[in-house]
Amino acid sequence: MNNAHLHQLVTTLETLDPLKLEAVNLLQTLRSQTGEWLPTTLTPETKEQVITATVELVAYTRRSANMARLLSQLQPIPLRDVPVVESQP
Questions:
Q1: Which residues of 74-83 are buried (b: 16+ CB within 10 A; e: fewer)?
Q2: Distance between CA 15 and CA 38 in Å, rounded?
Q3: Other CB atoms closer than 10 Å to residue 50's CB: what's the count?
Q4: What is the pLDDT of residue 1?
Q5: Alpha carbon of residue 41 to chain centroid
Q6: Which of 46, 62, 77, 85 has the fewest beta carbons under 10 Å from its own?
Q7: Reduced to 3 states, what is the DSSP secondary structure of residue 19?
Q8: How big is the CA angle at 5 (ends 75 and 16), to the nearest 5 degrees?
Q9: Which pLDDT tens digit goes with each residue over 12-47?
Q10: Numbers of helices and strands, H then E, in the chain
Q11: d(CA 46, CA 49)
Q12: Claim: this prediction has a pTM higher than 0.70
C-alpha cells in the first residue's frame, strides 16, 4: 500500500456517516424525556421498538466481534511510502 492508497482509504473512511442504531436512539430519547435509562412501562408499540432495537444491537455486536477477529488475522502491510515521524522527548 502506498501513500496515495492510504490517503484514499483515510478519505473514504472519514466520509462515512456514523452508524445509527435504534437502541442508542431509544436510550437517548428515553433518558432525555424521563431521566431513566430503561422504560418502566411498555406499551405494545414501545415493546416492539425495544425488541427490534435489541435484535439490531445484538446483530451489530456480533458483526463487530467477527470483524475484529478477521482484522486480527490480517498480515501486516508494509507502508514504504509513508514517513514515520517520531516525537522528540
A1: eeeeeeeeee
A2: 33
A3: 17
A4: 61
A5: 29
A6: 85
A7: coil
A8: 95
A9: 989 998 889 998 888 888 777 777 777 777 788 888
A10: 3, 0
A11: 5
A12: no
Residue 77: DSSP 8-state: -
The set of cell numbers assigned to 31 is 433518558
CA atoms within 13 A on the CB side of 84: 4
In the block, cell 406499551 appears at 43
**Side-chain half-sphere CA neighbours of 75 within 13 A:** 3
What would the grid cell of residue 10 be? Answer: 483515510
At 9, the pLDDT band (50, 70, 90 cuts) reads: confident
Identity at 17, one-letter amino acid code: D
- Residue matched to cell numbers 475484529: 68
- The one-letter amino acid code at 45 reads E
For residue 19, what are the contacts with CB-CB under 8 A and spacing of at least 6? 60
